[in-house]
Specification:
single chain; alpha+beta; 8-stranded antiparallel beta sheet; two-stranded antiparallel sheet; 13 helices; 10 strands; 11% strand; elongated
C-alpha cells in the first residue's frame, strides 16, 4: 500500500492553513501524510524487492532448466551404488581440494552431491554431482552454501543488488517500511468515514466498480492491499530477521530469550577440543574447511558410508548432509536437510571409531522462537510448502507491483488542473498534522516511535530523514509566503 491519499483534492487543506483543534482526526491526518510520503519515496525500493523476489521464487525450476544434467539422473535405477563408491568417483574426476561434506539425494531422480573445499574458491565450494545408480560424475558447479551459481546470483540480486553490504540497506528499507505502509493503509481504508462501503465486508474486500477516476484507483489499491496484507506483513517480518541492523537486534532478542537452536556437541567423549577450533562453528555442517592454509587429508570414503549407516540406525531419514570431523577429538556430523513441510532438522554426532551416536539435537527440542525463525526463512524463500509456497509468493509479489502502480497513478490523477495546464502530480497532504493530535496520543506515540527506531534502525533513520526534509520544506515555504 503505497503512495495513496485517502482524501479528495478539494478536501486537502492548503499547506499554509492553520491547524484545527486537537482531535483523533489529527491522528488520521498524520497517517495520511505518513502513508503518502512513505509510499512516494519507499515504493521504488518495494518495487525492486518485488521484482527480484519474484525472480528468486522460481529458482528451483530455473535450476532444473539450466543445470538439469547435473542435478538429475538419466534413469532411476533399482538400487543405488554404495556411497563410498560414489565419493571415490567424484574424487577421481576432481582430485583438487579436500572433502568438505556429502549430501545424499532428496528424491530418487536426484544426484548425490560431493562438496569439495578448494582454497582458490574462498568461501565458495566445488560440488561434484554423481549419479547414485551408476557412480559416475555428471559434472560440477561452483556453489555457495549449497546453492547453484544461478540461485546465488539471484539471491544476491534480491538481497543487495550485487552492491555488497551497502546494497543490503535497500532491502532493509523496503522490509522496514512495508509493514508501516500495510498497517497504515489498512487503518485508513477500514476507518474512512466517507460513504457506507466500509461498513460491509464487500466494501472492504472488493473494489468499487461504480467509482471512477481516483476513487476507482484507490479502491483497487486498497482492496488488493487488504487481500495481500498477511502475506506482505509476513515478508516484512521475515525479511527483517536476517537484515544487517534489524537482524542484529533480533539476534539480541534471541540471546535474551534463549531462543537459539540447540547446538550439537561434536566433541568425542573423553577428548579435549582442539584450541584452534572456533566454538561459533561447532555443529554447523557444510561450512568447514574454508580458509585453511594446508589442505587436510581426505577421510576414507568408507567412513562416510559407516557414518550414514549409524545415522540411519538412529532414525535420521530423508536427505542428510555428512560432514567429516575437523580433528581427532571431533565427531562426524550427520544433519537432516528436509526443508519442505513437515520439516526434518535432526542432527547426530557419530563416533567414527565405535560407530555410535555420541550426541543429538532434535527439531522437536528447538525453542519456539528458533522454530518460528527457521520456518519463516524457509517460507520467505519459497521452499517450505513446495510449489504452493512459490505460487503464493508470486501472487504477493505481483500484487505488490500492482499496488505500487495504482499508488503512483492516484498521485498523478490528483494533480490540479488550472486553465488547461496540469501539474505533474497531486499535492501532498497538509503539513502540521502533529499539532492536531491529542496530547495523550502524543505522550504514548513518541516513546513508541523511539522504541521502534531503536529496534529497526534503518526505519528510524529514514523516518528522521523524512522529518528533517519536512521541516526544511516548511521553513522554505514560510519564507516564500512571507516574501510574497
Amino acid at each position: 500500500m503505497s503512495a495513496t491519499i485517502d482524501q479528495d483534492p478539494q478536501r486537502t487543506a492548503p499547506a499554509g492553513a492553520a491547524p484545527a483543534g486537537r482531535s483523533w482526526q489529527g491522528v488520521r491526518a498524520l497517517l495520511v501524510r505518513l502513508h503518502f510520503y512513505a509510499g512516494v519515496f519507499v515504493a521504488p525500493f518495494l518495487l525492486v524487492a518485488a521484482l527480484t523476489g519474484l525472480a528468486y521464487t522460481f529458482t528451483p525450476q530455473l535450476d532444473q532448466l539450466v543445470y538439469g544434467d547435473q542435478l538429475r539422473v538419466e534413469r532411476v535405477g533399482d538400487r543405488p551404488r554404495p556411497l563410498s563408491e560414489q565419493i571415490a568417483a567424484a574424487r577421481a574426476a576432481h582430485p583438487e581440494g579436500s572433502l568438505a561434506s556429502v549430501v545424499t539425494p532428496a528424491e530418487p531422480e536426484d544426484t548425490t552431491r560431493v562438496v569439495l573445499s578448494v582454497p582458490e574458491l574462498g568461501e565458495k565450494q566445488r560440488t561434484v554431482f554423481v549419479d547414485p545408480y551408476t557412480a559416475k560424475a555428471k559434472g560440477d558447479l561452483t556453489t555457495s552454501w549449497g546453492s547453484t551459481p544461478l540461485t546465488t546470483w539471484l539471491d544476491e540480486l534480491h538481497r543487495s543488488l550485487h552492491l555488497g553490504e551497502t546494497g543490503r540497506l535497500y532491502a532493509e528499507v523496503a522490509a522496514g517500511w512495508l509493514w508501516v505502509l500495510v498497517v497504515g493503509g489498512l487503518v485508513l481504508w477500514l476507518g474512512r468515514s466517507r460513504g457506507q462501503r466500509a461498513k460491509s465486508v464487500r466494501g472492504v474486500l472488493l473494489p468499487d466498480r461504480a467509482a471512477r477516476g481516483v476513487r476507482r484507483t484507490r479502491s483497487l489499491h486498497a482492496a488488493t492491499g487488504v487481500w495481500l496484507a498477511l502475506g506482505l506483513l509476513f515478508l516484512s517480518a521475515t525479511g527483517l530477521t536476517w537484515s544487517t541492523y534489524s537482524g542484529e537486534r533480533f539476534g539480541r532478542l534471541l540471546d535474551a530469550a534463549k531462543g537459539h537452536a540447540p547446538e550439537l556437541d561434536t566433541v568425542l567423549p573423553g577428548a579435549q577440543p582442539a584450541p584452534e577450533a572456533g566454538d561459533e562453528h561447532a555443529g554447523h555442517a557444510g561450512h568447514g574447511g574454508h580458509g585453511g592454509a594446508a589442505e587436510p587429508a581426505d577421510p576414507d570414503p568408507a567412513a562416510f558410508e559407516a557414518a550414514l549407516t549409524t545415522a540411519r540406525g538412529a532414525g535420521l531419514g530423508g536427505t542428510v548432509q555428512l560432514t567429516p570431523p575437523a580433528d581427532a577429538s571431533s565427531a562426524w556430523v550427520v544433519a537432516q536437510k528436509d526443508d519442505v513441510w513437515p520439516v526434518h532438522y535432526d542432527q547426530v554426532a557419530v563416533d567414527p571409531a565405535k560407530g555410535e551416536v555420541t550426541a543429538r539435537t532434535r527439531w522437536a527440542d528447538y525453542p519456539l522462537l528458533a522454530k518460528l525463525s527457521k520456518l519463516g526463512v524457509q517460507g520467505h524463500m519459497g521452499v517450505l510448502f513446495g510449489i504452493a509456497n512459490q505460487v503464493v509468493l508470486a501472487v504477493v509479489a505481483l500484487g505488490l507491483i500492482l499496488i505500487t502502480f495504482w499508488g503512483y497513478r492516484m498521485w498523478w490523477q490528483r494533480r490540479p488542473n488550472r486553465e488547461g495546464r496540469s501539474a505533474l502530480a497531486g499535492r501532498a497532504p497538509a503539513r502540521g498534522t502533529w499539532r492536531r493530535i491529542p496530547l495523550p496520543a502524543l505522550a504514548v506515540g513518541v516513546p513508541l516511535v523511539a522504541a521502534l527506531g531503536w529496534a529497526l534502525p534503518v526505519l528510524g533513520c529514514t523516518l528522521l530523514a523524512f522529518l528533517v526534509v519536512d521541516v526544511i520544506t516548511g521553513l522554505v515555504h514560510r519564507t516564500r509566503t512571507a516574501r510574497a
